[in-house]
């Protein structure tokens, strides 16, 4: 008889309300992506800086040649 009492306790009937609304709370879990590494300087910016530096060096060489 003790076994029957335990089986009755484990099986509970589902109760739904006859009136009113049934609310269910939805939980939204955020999924975080891995951070994307961005270069500090773009490739084109590095090329432009290199070209500008070369142009400045050529200009300095030309000035030195004119002075001597």
TrEMBL record:
Pfam families recorded: BBIP10
Q: Which UniProt keywords apply?
A: Coiled coil
State the organism's lineage: Eukaryota, Metazoa, Ecdysozoa, Arthropoda, Hexapoda
This protein's GO cellular component annotations are:
BBSome
> Quick check: keyword Coiled coil in the entry?
yes
What residue ranges carry the coiled-coil annotation?
Answer: 41-68
Q: Which domain of life is it from?
A: Eukaryota
Q: Which GO terms describe its biological process?
A: cilium assembly; receptor localization to non-motile cilium
Native source species: Nesidiocoris tenuis
Protein name per Swiss-Prot or TrEMBL: BBSome-interacting protein 1
**Alphabetized InterPro entries for the sequence:** BBIP10 (IPR028233)
